[in-house]
Amino acid sequence: MQLRVVSDQPWDVAADVLAVPFAGEPNFETALGEIDRRSGGELHAVTEFGELKAERYAAAIMAPGQLRAGRLMAIAAGPADELTRQVVIRVASTIERRLGGRKVKSLAVWLGDLADHIEGGAETVAEMVARGVVEGSFEPAGIYRDDVKSAPPALDELILVAPGASPAALTRAAERGVVMGEGANLARGLANRAANDISPDVLAEEARTIAERHGLSIDVLGPEQAAELGMGMFLAVGRGSDNPPRMIVLRSGAARAKDALGRHLAIVGKGVCFDSGGISIKPAERMEEMKMDKTGACTVIAAIATVARLAPGTPLLAVAPAVENMPGPHSTRPGDIVKAMNGKTVDVINTDAEGRLILGDAMCYAEKLGATHIVDVATLTGAVARAFGDQMTGTFGTPQAWYDQVAAAGERAGERYWQMPFVEEYRPDLDSWYAEVTNTGSVEGGLIKSALFLREFVTVPWAHLDIAGTAYFRKKTPYAPAGATGVSHATLVELALAGAKKA
């Protein structure tokens, strides 16, 4: 897709479709009024008719009148005082998805009204709109089907219309947005693939291809190497499957190199390619969704590739423990005692609390490889989805100063997080009769207890992003299809880029 930024007025731009986002109620005293006049009053007419409402993501397609575009689309961004980066991204995604099944090769988006209401102005909006259009183009049904009639159009050209702005500055911002969107879609494409398509070994091969494409180094540990390193928790989860586990490690920059902020940052992602629950088997309902339990691993693999595209050589580690959690003659049983890489003994009470086991060893390994700061991302608990739904990611972090840096990256990325506390009074609930810690306690406070367990296996500044609620949508929205969302990819990229050396 070719990207172009023009400083022309929107009515002078030729495209198959001109999209006109607006905040609040349509204000025909602004440039929106001139667009309306040149369209022959179409904007005003569809508003009066009730076809176009001021409700967020409401959109209408209409005749262009004297505009140079083939069609005019108006789309509501909701109340102006509630406009955020996330909303701008989703408005742009909605534009692309609203055109699904239509023959559109060139799309122009007027930035004017959005730029007037968002901090950072036209440059921020250019990046978020470009990213949103790219993310809106993702169609998971196309992974296994050759023809999806309702798929968003494959654009030849995206034109961002910003009258009076500097095209060069906005082009740089928009190009960054395109790369961010493509990275999110890479994570989504991997996460949506079926378990019979992506095993731990296949995920490792996908990571190898990505590493070669972007100049990253890669190391993949098999069961023998993991056993030599003492990764007893990691190996315990994968024992029941015929598909052996893989510890995937991608690196940007030199080993143990520090970034501009003095960090050797590691991003660690849970990669359970299919989670049956093991011996503690899950109910059959919605078990097909458990192919999504690898989303954390897919996200960190995509994130390090995106960082390599935007700031090559930035020191960064991505660690993706990949397993299948299956019942079988060699499966770990409830009550089995295993030893973690850091030497702690763990009583496996519930084999369906497997993500924390593989993450624990992965974080220990990240520290062994020189990580000074860690962020893990995982579809870890049903509790976080029950607490926050699919729009807010529950998080933990220590120390607070490190978590604040992660949260700031989330703000820049346009993603929403809610910090949860470590409640020390819950820690005794993880005590074992036989080992130093159990992998799960009573269900009360389960979200917090999952983080308390993970904390046993990290000694450096660390943040935990539980994306079990936000990793995928069960039904489509105006701005996204059902399936993987790409959540936290942009946050991880922004966090890593904060330490990139300036050109």
Could you please describe the fold and organization of this structure?
This protein has 503 residues and is α/β, with parallel strands linked by helices. It has two domains: 2-186, 3-Layer(aba) Sandwich (Leucine Aminopeptidase, subunit E, domain 1), CATH 3.40.220.10; 193-380 and 463-497, Aminopeptidase. It has helices spanning 31-38, 42-49, 85-98, 112-115, 121-136, 167-192, 200-214, 223-228, 232-238, 295-310, 355-368, 382-388, 400-413, 446-455, 489-497; strands at residues 2-6, 17-22, 59-62, 71-76, 106-110, 157-161, 217-221, 246-252, 265-269, 271-275, 316-325, 336-339, 345-348, 373-378, 393-398, 417-419, 437-438, 462-466, 472-473, 483-484. Strands 7, 8, 9, 10, 11, 14, 15, 16 and 18 form a nine-stranded mixed beta sheet that branches. Strands 1-6-5-2-4-3 form a six-stranded mixed beta sheet, sandwiched between helices. A three-stranded mixed beta sheet has the order 12-13-17, with helices on one face. A hairpin with a 5-residue loop joins strand 12 (336-339) and strand 13. Helix 7 runs parallel beside helix 10.
